[in-house]
Amino acid sequence: MVVLISIILLAPLTAFAVYALLGLANKGNPRQDVLSTFAMLAAFICSILLFWQIDPKPVPLTIDWISLGSITFSMGFYLDSVTVIMLIVVTLVSSLVHIFSMGYMHGDPRYPRFFAFLSLFSFSMLFLVVSDNLLGIYIGWELVGLCSYLLIGFWFEKDSAANACKKAFLTTRVGDVGMFVGMMMLFTKFKTLSLYDGANAGIFTLVEGLSGTGDMLWLSVAGILIFCGAVGKSAQVPLHTWLPDAMEGPTPVSALIHAATMVAAGVYLTARMFPILTTSSSLVIAYVGGITAIVAATIAIVRFDIKRVLAYSTVSQLGFMMLAIGAGSYVAGLFHLTTHAFFKALLFLGSGSVIHAFHAMHTHHDEEHTDDANHEHDDHSLVHEHGSEIPPDQDMRNMGGLRRKMPFTFITMLIATLSISGVPFIFSGFWSKDKILGGVLERAMEWNSIHHYILFVIALIAAGITAFYMFRLIFMTFFGEPKNQEMHEMAHESPWVMTVPLLVLAFLSFPVVNHLWFNKDFVKPPMQHHIHAPEHAQVLPDSKTHNTEFSLAFLGVSEANAAEGEENGHDSAHGADGHHGHSPAHTIAMILSIIVAGFGILLSWLFYHKRRLSAEAVSTTFRPVYNLFWNKYYFDEFYDGVLVALTVWKSRLYAQFDGSVVDGIVNGVGTVTRDVFAAFTGFFDNSVVDGIVNRIAEVTWTIGGRIRRIQTGAIQTYLFVVIGGIVLIILIFRVL
Amino acid sequence: MEITLKTLIFYGFALMTIGSAFAVVTVRNIVHAAFALMVTLFGVAGLYVFLQADFLAATQVIVYVGGILVLILFGVMMTSGRLQMRIHIERGQLILGGGITLALLMLLLTVIANTPKWKNLSDDGTVFVPTTSRIGKLILNEAFLLPFEIASVLLLVALIGAALISRKEIRD
Amino acid sequence: MLLSLMIFVPLLGMVVVLLLPRESEELIKRVTLLFTFIPLILAVYLFITYDRSTAASQYIANITWIEKFNINYHVGIDGLSVTLMLLTALLGPICVIASWRNIEKGIKAYMALFLMLETGMLGFFAAMDLFLFYVFFELTLLPMYFLIGVWGGPRREYAAIKFFLYTLFGSVLMLVAMIAVYLASGDPGARTFDIPTLIALASTEGHALNSLNFQIWVFLGFFIGFAVKVPIFPFHTWLPDAHVEAPTAISVILAGVLLKMGTYGLVRINMAMFPLGLDRFTNGSDFWGYSLALLGFINIVYGSFCALAQTDFKKLVAYSSIGHMGFVILGLAARNDTGVSGAILQMFNHGVISAMLFLLVGVLYDRAHHREINRFGGIGSKMPIYTGITTLAFMASLGLPGLSGFVGEALSLLGAFAKYKTLTILSTIGIVVGAAYFLWTLQRVFLGKLNPDYEDIPEINKREILTLVPLGILTILLGVFPHIIIDMFSVSVTELTNSLTEAIGTFQANL
Amino acid sequence: MTLQHYLVISAILFSLGIFAVLTRRNAISILMGIELILNSCNLNFVAFSRFVTPPENIDGQIIAIFGIVLAAAEAAVFLAIILAIYREFGSIRPDEVDTLKG
Questions:
Q1: Which of A361, A497, A550, A716 has a CA that sits 20 to 30 A from residue A699's CA?
Q2: Domains of chain D: residue spans and CATH
Q3: Which residues does residue C372 pair with via DSSP β-bridges, in sequence order?
Q4: Prediction ipTM score
Q5: What is the pTM of this model?
């Protein structure tokens, strides 16, 4: 086990270290791609092997990292079922992205560097996943942030990329600081940052032992602060603005980091912190997730940049996951994380394939631009009047009718779209999204909580919108007539290194992954000791509605329900009475979600395929709303115009203060000392001190001048003195 | 002490010496001074005779009068060009010098007068023995051979040095 | 003996350098390198053989120096000293190598002064006698003045005099406090400058040193002396000027070691010797009880914001130093194991990281002959290795976990949070702003389109890499295994915090 | 004629020599003064030799002979120097030869 986990972590790290060392010696590594990819595949295989070895009762493997008197910070791994599933997801997606990149990034001047960064990212992400303590998680957390920074800014010659990477790092850092403060609170309270029991009791045990049945404010605050980290990393409102900008990075990076793994780390963290969440912090998380889901979805409707649509879709889906965890549906949240990782990675890689097709056209167009400016666009005729920032090869308005040109890409992307839209039963996305909706509704019914009803409605609407804009993407890209004939002609199917990963991911978008989760004993949600149902909660009568259960056991659904029931069983100790099995909530949710998804797809079909409805007309009619969506709710304007400007202004102020006031005081004191104080002292000095000195000097000078005459140079004078002296001496001795 | 011829001659020599020496230091003309010095040197030679130092007296006359004094006269000639060399004496310097000299003289005289050991030492009744042979033996045979050699070397050095210094193109 | 050897080898080197002919510059540099290398070897030896299980001083040498005033040549090291001496000894050769080509005039005098400076610094960290401590403290001042004033930039005289006057102002107050302590330490004849003795006396009940009032004033005297050196707001304005004008290697020493002298003094004298005075400023009960932490907070936030506004690369790094030293102050103000350990670790790490940063600035300055951030752009594509190392240094400095800067900062904050909740939370603003100015600089200098002026800017050369690599390795190593350093001083720190608590407790019990 | 007679004469000669050395403004006059002084010394040696030591001991006379030798050497060097000075300064007035004047 230790060996396996060591290989999983060290393989990608070694791949990066080789690159770094060779780079320092000013020698590139020509086969970095192979090295990194094999390291990743090795990690993937080890993860699979680890899957069979998971201990039902995991114990963290820790070592002492820092010992300070009575306090010890340890570092270690905690391997439970969720960890292993995450390991498999990360290593698998990462391996596929590595393979895909070998085609996509081919010919880039910094090709080896790209793979080195991917390796470093994979290491950091895996480290984050397996860490058993907050400090370790934080370390991995920041390291993935660094890699994200490096990879978003991979084509740093583009100013937009340079801006985007900085924005990403800073925005997430704001959240991270919140997380750090949360860690400080927990540390101050518990004197440890370990989550699980090792040599000493971990935070979770200690939280369990906290007295006080009420909603502990400080614990809620700590939970929310830690969640702040997740808000930053998982691009939740209000710190979501960096993620769409992060699309400046190469598309495989978007697929791996900004869709499948890193952004999901926030969800993973929140899930990890599940036991310390209190009723109110859970609610905050749920609301943030819900709002994010709907806000991002609405923005996605009006985007034309294929990658931005996917980015907002990612934000929206991450909101769903947060909502699930906030609503207590631990398994649902993580389940959606997994399914989303696969289908969203697929969507991104698919879009990458499309971009690559057009990109090939570009490189054909002007060969001299092949170096690092491969995504740069200098073809101004293609720039739309609206979104001048959209590169033409990513603009959906330039696409259309690609399904015949790129059949593999089309099919795989269609599968992923069906999955994310929640088309029932044969796509994994349906199950995971349905579980979230069901979980929220269940909590709402169970607690009779207006908050959760609202959240359920929000989520439902967001799900519908998701179906709408995803199909909009498909219709605009692959159906219809080519909008840009020149580009269309150049488009071609991608090489096999790119299509194979797409096919693998497409396979994973079917409910095969469900079996990972809905093994009855495999994943168990941890206990939440500080979640309490509100007073007005209605304890529903035992309502095992077996009759409504779909017998789709082959898809793993019955296990799903059983697992969720297990979770409820834990909750029941504190909240509502146990209602094992299936509540009507899930059935209601399922039916509603099918309806909204169908409605969304239908609308999309009418708008963008059949053209029965005009998108332009609608947007004109609802101009203010459209503007709001188009301008992304003015978050960026607010941040750039207010927060950033304020900070910069403040820093200038401080610097001016420093330069003029503080230093001014110092120099002023200096000047005053010199001019006023020193004028007096100077007077004193000149007249008295210096006067004395000068007087002494003068007297000496005068005496010297006089005595100097003795030195006449005339020997006779000397003789006078000598003889006079002799006489005098003898006289003195004779007389006295 | 009755006045004999001998004493008269002695006082004569003494007066001659002191008087001429006084003239040496007082006369304005340097050539006159040189001649006065010659008289002094003769006087001293006479005193040597009274002290039964016949060889020394002869040496004094030969070396001083025949050598040094001629040398001095040469010096006077070469430095002044014309033999008109008025010695200029400043008044203040004269007074100061005179004072100091007087004080010195008084001091010496006091010492001479007050030293009891030196009182009443008379040379009466001693038989004169010529000193030349003894001096020759002493210098060339006995105790003073080394100083004699050193003195001869010194003379040589002085001669060469004098010749060197007085050369015209000394700096070349 | 070993310790004294280490302290005085550079001084011997200075004599040797002075005896060498002025023209043989290569020889002078090699000799200097040799004489800075010997302390490094000795420091590593000390580091290895140092007994980590005890807080007692080790490698003690105690010889009577001035008998009349009971002044001894008393040197010894504990965990804190050995850590900082290692840092000093490490930066010595690196600075010599960094000065290899950049010093154009008077290399002999430069190297001689540098060696003298090194003796001063090493001696300061080892001194166990207050008088000796002061002597070494002042010994660093003089060479520094000349090194800035002679080999500095265009405004070097101004900067050097400012530095000199500031430090002198502080050290005069320190001298007064020192004499006060000496006079209070006993009856005439029994007075002492011996630091361990004074520490013991200051905690002895009923002793003149164990008076709250006395300790407060003496604490302030020493504090201002060290605050200038750290520098703590509002005594910091010499730092940007001195850094901007000083040659690269001297900036490295200034940021790497000289600032640590201030914080080292705070720990060694203010914390250990005046527990009651410390308590007055860190008890958290009223304004004065928050004052030390407040200063730390101001340093962090103020330094960071000022750095954000700078357009001079070196000035930016200088202000970032002010910000980072704020974490040290905050950690010390927490006066618990975590905070103090974090502070000391931060001292060491900041020494390493800021040294890297200044070296990197120097590399760029040597090529472009200016440091205006906005006039660069896109040189990342021309100098990939340099960009990589700079990114490493920036990330370490902005506290990226996995690199050394994080551990010290995190521990300082964790420790401080236990005592000062609000201030610590506010201080985390500094973390964000720190990331902001470094990333912004990274963007303006390295990212974006290449500025055509720097079309053929040469890549960092081997010599410069040689100076940076040891520091870079240390940054990563200590980020991953911080206990290498922490183990050195954790026992000493525990001892210190325990005795602090005890002394304060006893005093309050007697009130 | 006692010893004191000679000593008095010698003392007077010495004083006059000193006087000449001190007051004369001519180097050659000074030389003459020095000769006077040397003579007074020689006279003293001989006188002491005659009166104080046993009569057969004439060491004093020999010293006097050396004194004369010395005087001769001195006179030679002195005059050489005087000539050199004269060439250099055009004067042999000692008060005009004051290069060492402070």
A1: A716
A2: 3-91 (1.10.287.3510)
A3: C312
A4: 0.65
A5: 0.75
